Amino acid sequence: MNKKLLSILSILFLFSLLVISDTTGTAASVVLMSIKIIILHNIVQQ
Fold it and tell me: What average pLDDT is seen over the chain?
């Protein structure tokens, strides 16, 4: 249940960053970094 909540929060976080990236181009790199961190985090949890 905690993993589900964490994944939902991370998705919302990424979505908000994607909205921000529409206005600022630098936020796109932040989104890519966040995706990498989340993927690594999920791999570590398994």
Answer: 76
